[in-house]
TrEMBL record:
It comes from [Mycobacterium] vasticus. InterPro entries: Peptidase_M15C (IPR039561), Zn_M74/Hedgehog-like (IPR009045). Residues 139-217 form the Peptidase M15C domain. This is M15 family metallopeptidase.
Length: 219
């Protein structure tokens, strides 16, 4: 383990002696060890709350709750959960293990039923990373891939959806400037983006209109 060094203190430079120092171990990164293993569980309609209703395109039996370790904005490991289609469970676990090892921070990660009415806008405004939500594409009658558990939105406040002069979430105006480089933002070519695309997922940041920087999907 690395230790703190004395730098230019007198005892290092031949000057007058000073009280002896106790060498203190330098804390290692939280990602130098493997994260706590992911867990997978079935979900029920009651657990999905307002994010599911009987006319949704998949049933609760086709979905799984995956509990994962992610690095928080405080540089500490946290447990969060995503609800995804059962066919994608192994991919999602592998992707988020790689994000953790890359030290890519995620502020929070919980299912959208924690927000009143399962409202996607509220989840995005809270910078909540999420997956399943039985909803349609805004302005369209088609189901979003989130309604199939086949899409994940990462740090959505920092990575908004932009459609001309419109954007979501409503409090994301400052993050329309994609020259920003603070942790948690996604840019073309970033290692975090490649973790998804190398696994066959598509990134909304590559789209023409709308451009959806938060969005990853796997059909």
């Amino acid at each position: 383990m690395a230790v703190a060094i004395c730098g230019l203190l007198p005892q290092c430079t031949g000057g007058p002696s000073a009280p002896s120092l106790t060498l203190v171990p330098v804390p290692t990164s939280s990602t130098e060890t493997r994260p706590e293993p992911a867990t997978v569980a079935a979900v029920t309609a009651a657990e999905l709350g307002a994010t599911w209703h009987p006319d949704c395109p998949v049933t609760p039996k086709q979905l799984r709750r995956v509990t994962l370790t992610h690095l928080g904005f405080d540089d500490r490991p946290h447990r969060g959960e995503l609800i995804v289609h059962q066919e994608l469970v192994s991919q999602v676990i592998a992707i988020f293990e790689r994000l953790y090892q890359q030290e890519f921070p995620i502020e929070k990660m919980r299912s959208v039923d924690h927000y009143p009415g399962g409202e996607d806008e509220l989840s995005m405004e809270d910078n909540n990373t999420s997956a399943y939500n039985c909803r349609r594409i805004p302005g369209s009658g088609s189901w979003a891939l989130h309604a199939y558990g086949r899409a994940i939105d990462i740090n959505p406040l920092l990575n908004p959806m932009v459609d001309g002069d419109d954007f979501e979430p409503k409090n994301a105006k400052v993050y329309l400037d994609r020259r920003r480089i603070e942790p948690g933002l996604l840019h073309a070519g970033d290692p975090a983006v490649r973790v998804f695309t190398d696994a066959g997922w598509k990134w909304g940041g590559n789209w023409k209109s709308p451009v959806d920087y938060q969005h990853f999907e796997r059909r």
